[in-house]
Amino acid sequence: MLNGISESGSDVVGSFISQLQALQNRVKELEAENSKLSSQISKCCCHKTEEMQNGSDVESFKQGVESQRKNAGGDKTRKKKTIERNPGYDLKIMTHHSKRYVALKVMYFGQRFYGFASEAQMDPTVESEIFKALEKTRLLVGDKKESQYSRCGRTDKGVSSVGQVIALFLRSNLKETDGNHKISGELIPEAQIEGEIDYVRVLNRVLPSDIRILGWSPVSIDFSARFSCLAREYKYFFWRGNLNLSAMENAGKKFLGEHDFRNFCKMDAANVHNYRRRITQFEISSSNMSFEGGQLCAIKVKGSAFLWHQVRCMVAVLFMIGQGLESVDVIDILLDIEKTPRKPQYAMAPETPLILQSCEFEDVKFICSSDSGQALRIHLENEGRAYLLQSAIFQEAALSCLPLAKDQSLLNDGTIKKVTSHISLLSRPTEPSYEERRGKLNSRR
């Protein structure tokens, strides 16, 4: 009896093993078939993308922009990031294409984005939208690490740019050959441009309306958008109102040169240990734009590098000086960390008027074809007109408002706030010093 049960159990086990081997063989067959089909799809998609690049009709571009405007929306609802892949697109398959190292010049209107970088857990970011476009156009040849991706600036939530620069490997139309006329290395020499993909036109067709590629440039593989940058320039727009521009300019000149800016930034003692930065240019200028008799002005600050929220903190103190609430000498006092080791508590200037104006590099010249440039200008002009129409609506609404109460005042940034007595910066509560922050961090270890 026991022998019969044992023999029956052995038959069952043998049957299971046989079925398992058959399933494993079938899985291998399906994987091979899937790889073959994926390769065919990739080739078809690449041909389709290259065909799209040959049509440089401005009207089709405008239609694409209109479609993007409808699809982009203005949803600012916080949500966890989700990674989307285009069907039939495999980064591993795309790595066999010729590639070249490229720098892209990017502009974006930052109002709806949670900053530029995509490391944070919030969407949308400018960077995430750019990578979606790179995937959609089949320009990526690997993930961020494989493509040696780098960015020049990491602008915060709401901040815009007309001169951000990123660098990475992208697919190329050109072929690098060895002496036997075989494709080798897949790296395209920096000098070759003729016959290359029009990266500006291809990407701008699929990017949302508030992001645009302004130009591209071939760069050497040791180029870094962050560490190869020689200088960065920021602009901060504001309405003049009753501000004393002369006092603000005199105060701003004190920033020139190399100083410790720990009292003009948001301190990150865990990661940043050197707060000395060099400012090479500071100026305040008036523009030809006005609203209700108010003059639009801009503060321009240029330096080799900047700390977290540095420009917005500098501007906040300058506004206090322009309003006559602080003296020009307060800049000297805050830059002297021996006398003022702790930063007084004060609110930063709003983020929306701040733009990253430009990033400077040695021997990097950005390219934009005439067709792409024309389409780009048409798009930007149309976007500008759309915002002017919105401004006209807000102006009509303002004319319909009731007069302000006597105990309220309109600030230069357009917000309404009850009149309160100003507390001198040097009399305010202070934040912990760098040494105190480091001591607290070390005590937790």
TrEMBL record:
Basic and acidic residues composition-biased segments: 67-76
GO biological process: mRNA pseudouridine synthesis; tRNA pseudouridine synthesis
Chain ranges of the Pseudouridine synthase I TruA alpha/beta domain: 253-362
Name of the protein described by the UniProt record: Pseudouridine synthase I TruA alpha/beta domain-containing protein
GO cellular component: cytoplasm; nucleus
InterPro entries: PsdUridine_synth_cat_dom_sf, PsdUridine_synth_TruA, PsdUridine_synth_TruA_a/b_dom, PsdUridine_synth_TruA_C, Pus3-like, TruA/RsuA/RluB/E/F_N
Keywords in alphabetical order: Coiled coil, Isomerase, tRNA processing
Coiled-coil intervals: 13-40
GO molecular function terms attached to this record: pseudouridine synthase activity; RNA binding
A Pfam family per the record: PseudoU_synth_1
Family statement: Belongs to the tRNA pseudouridine synthase TruA family.
Region described as Disordered: spans on this chain: 56-80
